[in-house]
């Protein structure tokens, strides 16, 4: 029973972090085409990714006008996903 709960929690955690990863990726792609900032999809992506990207933007300056925070955020999310899912599965036995 405990192993099933751990597996479920690990899968949900992985899914949430994957959605965040792809939302950041899509936001970065969208920034290249300068979409309407009031478009519902762009606003949705901004609401999802802002809590991750804005704190990083305060500590990582643009490099030659290029914002590297999406790349850093995506790497950190993948690292977090691997560590968390592995830890959850290990705790569940």
Low-confidence segments: none
The largest sheet is: none
Report, as a whole number of angstroms, the end-to-end distance: 10 Å
Which of globular, elongated, flat, extended, rod-shaped describes the shape?
Answer: elongated
What's the average pLDDT? 93
Q: Please, how many domains?
A: 1
The count of strands amounts to: 0
Strand content: under 5%
Order of helices and strands: HHH
Rg, Å, rounded: 16 Å
Helix/strand class: mainly alpha
Helix content: over 70%
Please summarize what this structure is.
The protein is mostly helical. The chain has helices at 2-33, 40-59, 69-92. Helix 1 runs antiparallel to helix 3.
Task: Walk me through the structure.
It is a single chain. By secondary structure, the chain is mainly alpha-helical. It has one domain (2-92). Helices cover 82% and strands 0% of the residues. The chain is built from three helices and no strands. The chain has helices spanning 2-33, 40-59, 69-92. The protein starts with a helix and ends with a helix.
List its traits:
single chain, 0% strand, 93 residues, 82% helix, mainly alpha, 3 helices
Topology:
Layout: H1 2-33, H2 40-59, H3 69-92
Helix pairs in contact: 1-2, 1-3, 2-3
